[in-house]
Amino acid sequence: MVHNVVLLCYSDPDSHPFISDKEKMYLKKELENVHRESPATPWRSIWTSTPLWALVAAQIGHDWGFFTMVTDLPKYMSDVLKFDVKENGIWSSVPYVVMWLISMSSGWLCDWLITPSLGPALFIMIASYSGCDRYLTVAMFTIAMGFMGTFYCGMKVNALDLSPNYAGTLMAIVNGIGAITGIFTPYVVGALTENHTLKQWRVVFWITFAVFVVTNIIYTCYGSGEEQSWNNKEKNRDEKGKDLS
To answer: Can you tell me where the transmembrane regions are (predicted)?
Structure first.
């Protein structure tokens, strides 16, 4: 239903099939004196922004761990922990329910959580050393995903801190680059776990641990919660005018 409502929205009165000619003329008359000028998007400043690339690194770390868990946690529970189909479905969903609950309830900690946590990396590694203890392993994965839930009220909104005016552009860049990890993680896991042994899976989790640690270090060292100078639209408009003159 919501999707159908969205389809009823149009970019301008002329393209809307249900507006009468009289209404269109009225809207045109009222809007013709409205002056709109969009300053040039400061692409050079955006692409050379160190805090932006630190945020990209954080997104890569999150997405690598997230896609590894999304695509391969059920496989791990089946191949290593020997859950049947019904148990696999139930226990594979628990970490994501917890992640959702944490992401919804931890907003009041967002100022503290702007610094990324190594919790997911730590507990994923502990899970790989839990042997065949099914429920201890599930508990470790659940705690790891719970820590990942804090990402959404911390780093996920960091683009708004850097540039409220260009937050959409920043989010597109950050999410687009981070999503590329979804191409590689299934291939890496498949290549490393041909025999479905715990030892092979442990290598997968060590790689995930390394990615988490490296990207966390980058974000901790170079990330920022301060508004960037290129967020100023008036300044960008002045620079655009200078370029044209």
So the answer is: 135-154, 166-189, 201-222
Q: What is the CATH number of the domain that holds 128?
A: 1.20.1250.20
Over its C-alpha atoms, the chain yields an Rg (Å, rounded) of: 24
pLDDT over 80 at 168, yes or no: yes
Structural domain includes residue 180 = yes
Question: Which of residues 148 and 236 earns the better pLDDT score?
Answer: 148
23 part of a folded domain? no
Tell me if 220 sits within 8 A of 115, measured CB to CB.
yes
In the DSSP assignment, the letter for residue 228 is P
Which residue reads 């954080």 in tokens? Answer: 58
pLDDT bucket at 31, cuts 50 / 70 / 90: low
Count structural domains, the chain: 1
Q: In sequence order, what DSSP letters do the residues of 77-99 get, joined into one string? A: HHHTS---HHHHHHHHHHHHHHH
- Please tell me the pTM assigned to this model: 0.69
Within 13 Å and on the Cβ side, how many CA atoms surround 183? 5
Q: What is the domain range of residue 93?
A: 49-225
Structure tokens at 29: 């008359």
Whole-angstrom CA distances from 5 to 2, 8, 9, 26, 158 are 5, 5, 7, 24, 30
What is the C-alpha to C-alpha distance for residues 201 and 208, in angstroms, rounded to an integer?
11
